[in-house]
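May I ask for a sample protein chain and its fold as tokens?
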Amino acid sequence: MPGYHSELWFGLLTTRQTPRAIVAKLNRGIARILNDPNLRQRWMPLGLDPRPTTPEQLDQLIADEIAAFTAIARAANITAE
């Protein structure tokens, strides 16, 4: 559909109280796993393309998704029931 883009993504979220050092350690471990050639070799034929990011990039992705879907809902006059 012209002008439409959708992408499935997954992220690991924690509470705001989680120390930044713990978030960084989790992020490094997850990135290491997602960059493992064996995992990538198994996932790519399934159409999965692991792209680890930073916690800040995930925060921005979530903010962008909220903004985009809020605009779509408003344009379509969709309201919560």
Q: What stands out?
A: The longest helix spans residues 55-75. The chain is about 55% helix and 0% strand. The mean pLDDT is 93. Helices lie at 20-34, 37-43, 55-75.
